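Quick question: what would this complex look like in 3D?
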Amino acid sequence: MNGFLGTYNISLDDKGRLNVPAKLRATLEKEYGPHLVVCVMDGFLIVFPQNEWATNEEKLSHLNAFDKGDRNRLREFYAGATECKIKSGRILLPANQREAAGLKKDAVLVGMSKTFEIWAPDRWTRVSG
Amino acid sequence: MNGFLGTYNISLDDKGRLNVPAKLRATLEKEYGPHLVVCVMDGFLIVFPQNEWATNEEKLSHLNAFDKGDRNRLREFYAGATECKIKSGRILLPANQREAAGLKKDAVLVGMSKTFEIWAPDRWTRVSG
DNA sequence: AGGATAGTGTCTTAAAGTGTCAAATAGTGT
DNA sequence: ACACTATTTGACACTTTAAGACACTATCCT
């Protein structure tokens, strides 16, 4: 299978939920499950299927939670993340993540193979051309 | 499962109790129990579910009780800790811990997988950006 | 004992999150 | 192009969660 591909313009509903496009949803259902981890990046969001997230987490497992520097690194990683589940085709992003990504009414979803990204339209056009 | 994730802004009530956000509470209930150990760190608090505390305690057991430096480290660790329990969704932090963390009216909770942290808002922004 | 203070239970209100449906739109096969 | 199906959107009612307030209990102190 091909993982997540393509660009999708979607809109958020009155409560800030966003509809996961059917194609991405199909990939999710076939390859992964409904559990996602959403993570704040520079000015956009990365969505990991649960087990993809887990492999990232594993890479950090050698860090020592009692070491100050390591702890800072762990914090950076975990603080920006949230678990979230697809519910009747949609996901609700927490308000602070929506804000971090500058999401208001519309969003752009971009497939990236094992993950996909969520962008505010204006930020996306600035990147993509 | 994913453990504690995310950042939450919450406020303390008039008696200094803080509401544990529903998501963290759900993780606690699923993976752990209502018994917590709260521990003063550099300028913030770390909350351990009871059994995570126990495993940490074990890790520290290799330290030499006759070594001055180790002993200081242990003392610092244990002296700053308190047991506490979630009661109707909230926890009450002892006054000295609140003071040590600079907590007044608002707090930031940060999930860190197996533990979570409690920060005073001003100290948190200094760390996180 | 009496008063002060710290801790606990519970209620109310407001806000955030969830389920569901119907109309609108896009996509499909013939 | 047409009818038909699937998907997306927006809306609304409902549920859950958080915040603040207040009364009550336990504890401490003199």
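Answer marked as accepted. The mean pLDDT of chain B is 92.
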